[in-house]
Specification:
This protein has helices at 19-28, 75-82, 100-113, 154-171, 191-208, and strands spanning 6-12, 41-50, 58-67, 90-96, 142-147, 174-177. The chain is globular. It has a single domain (4-207), classed as Rossmann fold (3-Layer(aba) Sandwich). Strands 2-3-1-4-5-6 form a six-stranded mixed sheet, with helices on both faces. The protein contains five helices and six strands, in the order E-H-E-E-H-E-H-E-H-E-H. By secondary structure, the chain is an alpha/beta fold.
Length: 216
Amino acid sequence: MAALDRVKVLVLGDSGVGKSSLVHLLCQNQVLGNPSWTVGCSVDVRIHDYKEGTPEEKTYYIELWDVGGSVGSATSVKSTRAVFYNLLNGIILVHDLTNKKSSQNLYRWSLEALNRDVAPTGVLVTNGDYDREQFADNQIPLLVIGTKLDQIPEAKRNEVLTRTAFLAEDFNAEEINLDCTNPRYLAAGSSNAVKLSRFFDKVIEKRYFLRDGNQV
């Protein structure tokens, strides 16, 4: 069997938002029973059929790089993570729907990975305002995933999801909200599964079919 082509997708977000549980669910289609803190970076692989069901269908490896989520502006912390940001093809931004700060920090994570975090203060969100121009020329496909949907009371769910929907709009990305302890949220044929497949297709297209200097 010929070796499969592969793409590299970063999984970024604060510690405790459920990145490791998400990656395990995406790659193993199983719930991670005893998640632990990720130190440095952990890599898992998902097999993805590009344009499944069409004449162009082809199988690829999706490398999911789960980067440890210690938030800090220290140069040493950022330089340590920087080694994982080389030659990335896509980014999954993960936030905890019950933790508003983890949602706001996605702006910092994304700009750090894209080498755009050059402001000395690191302040990217002020009173809820966000400068979308920082992503105007971004060519790296992004996907926003909110976790712990099950922990939001039904009475507050609409309010929370309305607030977080602006994240996806700011990043010009699709949005998936789920509970990582329930595989049904990514069941085949579901809207979430379709969005995920569409994102991976876009990552592959940018890497292998569009010669526009998208790699960083």
